[in-house]
């Protein structure tokens, strides 16, 4: 066991574009777990699209790391009755090689967990649990944290809650080159629907169609998005999956049919824009997902069912979702897509690069192996 470990911290306030020199490397002593804690070695960290916004808004302090990343880790020492040495777990973690976790602690940035999730996880956090050994044997940390992590589960529950999707349904999926969207588009195709995605540029669109096997893809940077949507959806849209908002959200909403369905789970357009909004959080989850009063009125008029929530609300059914997604991957029907960067030292460049261009699937930084 090493005596120290490495950690990236925010080096200076974030003004202007995010650059690798906004990160500084520290070496700190490896802690001993206290009673009720476990020490874990981080194998891989998912980098979420709100990372830059957190840094700009002061959610990540200068001199500190961002503790809100979702990570796959292996337990190396445990004084927590829930975890045993060798367990491979899902947890929240900093940009660092080791982490202390505790089943008694609640999740950072999430409401208290329900009793049923507490019972399933054995912890007070929806995001802290040991993966089942069968899944660890079958899938890499990258897949555990992407298709079987919050991205896959968001797509799975979103399509289910707004479904069932039928073969005749015309489906539009925003953010198809991204983590949740790439899975949502594939699940809609598996349901037999006609699926058209969105991506930024002709190359990205080609990648989407070739990789995901869906029916088409619209370049969201096109001048006349309304005309593009009109020609791709002559009979209108029956189901719209939206993790993006912005121009794509507005244009798709115009073509959403009466009695249609909409799944709003995020606002990537604002997170990837030139300067992410850092104001006060919206008053409700629906407003946070871009469903304004005006949009609510359109939804009411056209009798559109719109779902907006955090995926952790459905974690009582996580095991079933993991099994279903796992089966689809095993059968070769669902393709994992991740943007995997190797090496702890690459983390600043990877995070800064996320906001430049060319992201496909979830950005993950791998630090170690089992
Ligand atoms: N509700 C929940 O529980 C939940 C769960 C997971 C994620 N989320 C949220 O969902 C959103 C997406 O997450 P993700 O992990 O899928 O993100 P991601 O992997 O970073 O993908 C983002 C996608 O958005 C697209 N995009 C970026 N800017 C755009 C713009 N201006 N117009 C149209 N498309 C644009 C990108 O397309 P190109 O790369 O082709 O430009 C990419 O496909 C985020 O807001 C995230 O916080 C919510």
Summarize the structure in short.
By secondary structure, the chain is an alpha/beta fold.
Question: How would you characterize the overall build of this protein?
Answer:
- The protein is α/β, with parallel strands linked by helices and 370 residues long.
- The protein folds into two domains: 4-146 and 337-366, Medium-chain alcohol dehydrogenases, catalytic domain (Quinone Oxidoreductase, Chain A, domain 1), CATH 3.90.180.10; 150-311, Rossmann fold (3-Layer(aba) Sandwich), CATH 3.40.50.
- It contains 14 helices and 15 strands.
- The protein has helices spanning 51-56, 115-121, 133-138, 141-145, 150-161, 179-190, 202-212, 225-232, 246-254, 268-272, 285-288, 293-301, 318-330, 347-354, and strands spanning 4-10, 23-29, 38-47, 69-78, 88-93, 98-101, 129-130, 170-173, 194-199, 216-219, 237-242, 256-264, 305-307, 338-342, 362-366.
- Strands 3, 4, 5, 6, 7, 14 and 15 form a seven-stranded mixed beta sheet that branches. It has a six-stranded parallel beta sheet with strand order 10-9-8-11-12-13, sandwiched between helices.
- α5 (150-161) crosses α6 (179-190) and α5 (150-161) crosses α13 (318-330).
- It starts with a strand and ends with a strand.
Bound molecules: NADP nicotinamide-adenine-dinucleotide phosphate
The portion of residues forming beta strands comes to 15-25%
Largest sheet: 7 strands, mixed
How confident is the prediction overall: mean pLDDT? 95
Structural class from helices and strands?
alpha/beta
**Shape verdict:** globular
List how many beta strands DSSP finds. Answer: 15
| The named CATH superfamily of the largest domain | Medium-chain alcohol dehydrogenases, catalytic domain
* Number of helical elements: 14
CATH fold-level assignment of the largest domain: Quinone Oxidoreductase, Chain A, domain 1
Q: Give the helices and strands as they follow along the chain.
A: EEEHEEEHEHHHEHEHEHEHEHHHEHEHE
């Amino acid at each position: 066991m090493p005596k120290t470990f490495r950690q990236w911290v925010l080096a200076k306030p974030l003004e202007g574009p995010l650059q690798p020199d906004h990160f500084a490397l520290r070496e700190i002593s490896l802690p001993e777990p206290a009673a009720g804690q476990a020490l874990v070695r981080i194998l891989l960290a998912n980098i979420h699209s709100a990372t830059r916004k957190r840094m700009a808004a002061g959610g990540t302090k200068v001199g500190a790391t961002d503790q809100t990343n979702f990570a796959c880790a292996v337990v190396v020492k445990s004084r927590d009755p829930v975890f045993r040495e060798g367990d491979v777990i899902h947890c929240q973690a900093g940009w660092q090689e080791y982490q202390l976790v505790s089943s008694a602690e609640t999740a950072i940035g999430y409401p208290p967990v329900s009793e049923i999730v507490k019972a399933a996880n054995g912890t007070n956090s929806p995001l802290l649990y040991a993966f089942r050994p069968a899944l660890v044997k079958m899938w890499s940390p990258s897949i555990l944290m992407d298709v079987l992590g919050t991205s896959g589960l968001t797509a799975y529950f979103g399509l289910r809650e707004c479904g069932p999707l039928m073969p005749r349904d015309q489906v539009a999926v925003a953010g198809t080159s991204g983590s949740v969207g790439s899975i949502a588009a594939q699940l809609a195709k598996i349901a037999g629907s006609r699926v058209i995605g969105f991506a930024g540029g002709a190359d990205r669109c080609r990648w989407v169609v070739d990789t995901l096997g869906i029916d088409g893809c619209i370049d969201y940077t096109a001048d006349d998005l309304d005309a593009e949507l009109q020609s791709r959806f002559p009979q209108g849209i029956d189901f719209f999956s939206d993790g993006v908002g912005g121009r794509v959200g507005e244009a798709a909403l115009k073509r959403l049919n009466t009695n249609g369905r909409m799944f709003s789970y995020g606002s990537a357009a604002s997170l990837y824009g030139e300067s992410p909004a850092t104001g006060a959080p919206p008053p409700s989850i629906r407003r946070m997902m871009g469903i304004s009063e005006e949009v609510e009125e359109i939804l009411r008029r056209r009798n559109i069912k719109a779902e907006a929530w955090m995926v952790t609300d459905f974690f009582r059914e996580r095991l079933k979702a993991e099994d279903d997604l796992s089966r689809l991957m095993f059968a070769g029907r669902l393709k994992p897509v991740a943007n995997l960067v190797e090496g702890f030292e690459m983390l600043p460049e990877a995070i800064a690069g996320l906001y430049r261009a060319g992201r496909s699937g979830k950005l993950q930084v791998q630090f170690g192996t089992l």
